[in-house]
Design goal:
This protein is 37% helix and 14% strand. By secondary structure, the chain is α/β, with parallel strands linked by helices. Strand 4, helix 3 and strand 5 form a beta-alpha-beta unit. Helix 1 crosses helix 2 and helix 4 packs across helix 6.
């Protein structure tokens, strides 16, 4: 497991190494003799257009030099604002900076001659997730506070559990049919209000009080943290469910979505 800090889980089958993935020579050295290079790395959210190309190029170069199979963790931004259910062969039509960045990374890898696949996840939820739900809903619901979210409260939306994402990456890496194309992580589709309500029930918290964040609210948040300025690009079209089709992942890779309540039970509930 390569990270800049050298951190990660303590496990007898995991060797932790401190390295910067943009150091192509060092990354090549660490990749040499391995079977597969799996990347879940990304620069800070607000620096994607500036920093992602160098990271992607380094990873792809290491894969070329060593001949390993290459598995990329992606998301849904490259599709742009489309209506679902979205399948992995949907055209990549994003025009925003983050969507174009993701699109470029995949298209360059796919055209490189490397044995490559991309696993695309929806918004993360569950233990360890960092997403709109985890940052703006999860703790507020558990603590009984007002929830403000920059999305429509009752429109269906697809969510990917962290564990299902990891299982899909591993399954794709081990299946020859996976390479040369993209796959969707299995998801659960429900509104953010429904998801918050389930979390509240499991945490024995009050019924969630929820309001949709206004453009003004979101603009004010941009003065506190650059992350929030990036949200405007990735918000779904008003009134449009954002739903993905993962049937091929289930059929060919053998990975299904973990039941919602099982995922939410993994979340820590402070008392």
């Amino acid at each position: 497991m390569i990270s800049r800090t050298g951190g990660g889980p303590n496990h007898p089958l995991i060797d932790k190494v401190a390295a910067d993935a943009t150091d192509t020579d060092r990354l090549t050295e660490l990749t040499e003799g391995r079977a597969t290079l799996i990347t879940t790395a990304a620069p800070p959210y607000h620096r994607w257009p500036e920093q992602f190309p160098a990271l992607s190029a380094s990873l792809l170069t290491a894969a070329k030099r060593t001949g390993v199979a290459y598995v990329m963790l992606g998301n849904l931004y490259a599709y742009g604002p489309v209506s679902g259910p979205i399948t992995p062969d949907f055209p990549l039509t994003a025009t925003g900076p983050k969507g174009r960045t993701r699109r470029r990374a995949w298209e360059e890898a796919a055209a490189s001659g490397v044995s490559v696949t991309e696993v695309r996840a929806a918004q993360f939820y569950g233990a360890g997730a960092v997403s709109v739900f985890s940052l703006m809903v999860q703790r507020q619901v558990i603590e009984g506070r007002l929830v403000l979210v920059p999305q429509e409260l009752d429109v269906p939306h697809s969510y990917s559990a962290i564990g299902d994402t990891a299982r899909t990456l591993v399954a794709a890496s081990r299946n020859e049919q996976a390479y040369g194309r993209a796959w969707h992580v299995p998801t659960s589709t429900l509104s953010v209000r429904d998801l918050a309500g389930r979390l509240a029930d499991l945490a024995d918290a009050p019924k969630p009080r929820m309001e949709e964040m206004t453009e003004r609210d979101l603009t004010l948040l941009t003065f506190t943290e650059p992350f929030w300025a990036e949200m405007h690009e990735v918000l779904t079209k008003p009134g449009h469910p954002f739903v993905i089709d993962y049937s091929e992942t289930e059929k060919i890779l053998g990975v299904s979505a973990t039941p919602v309540n099982d995922v939410l039970r993994e979340v820590s509930y402070p008392r």
